[in-house]
């Protein structure tokens, strides 16, 4: 039930973090325009500069149901089995997110936006689990899911690349969406190098 309930929670988390990042991007643009030398300030530096002004409440995920399941399965001597089952369930959930139908037309880019929100929320949950129960959910577990997610996201875009490039408005909006998505994932300790390579391949080739 907890895993099922995460479907709505993850999208809400993704939406909230996306909106926060959009506000930060506006602040970054204003900050950069005020710098006389006009040198490029990397996103990593921007995140550090933001810390002084970031007063948003942290995003929290209710983990008690998971901890209760862990406790029960440990008592029953089924921790390893529960861990395998949980890993499979989370992998299936990510696959479902990435199997959602999306359209790359200006009037219906909300489907792709929702997918990005789902991906963000999914990995925020993963990082919360990893931080609070590292012996149950390891960094390698999360990294493997992230690699899978980026590969499938790249494939979705590759299959639609002709449609995207044929409409400059769609390409422009998509570039903004993916830029914000990349910043959100980077701020939350994900390796975004492949995301940046993907964006360069789409928008700078």
Could you describe the 3D structure shown?
- This protein is mainly α.
- The chain is built from nine helices and no strands.
- It has helices at 2-33, 43-50, 64-75, 79-98, 110-132, 139-159, 161-166, 168-187, 193-203.
- Helix 4 packs parallel to helix 6 (139-159), helix 5 (110-132) packs antiparallel against helix 6 and helix 5 (110-132) packs parallel to helix 8.
- The longest helix is centred in the N-terminal third of the chain and has 32 residues, at 2-33.
- The radius of gyration is 19 Å and the shape is globular.
- It starts with a helix and ends with a helix.
- 20% of the residues are buried.
- Mean pLDDT is 86; it is low at 36-41.
Mean pLDDT: 86
Q: How would a crystallographer describe the biggest sheet?
A: none
Q: Estimate the strand proportion.
A: under 5%
The coarse overall form would be globular
Fraction in helix: over 70%
CA gyration radius, whole angstroms: 19 Å
Number of strands: 0
Which runs of at least 5 residues are low in confidence (pLDDT < 50)? 36-41
Distance between the termini: 45 Å
Specify the structural class. mainly alpha
Please count the helical segments.
Answer: 9
How would you spell out the order of helices and strands? HHHHHHHHH
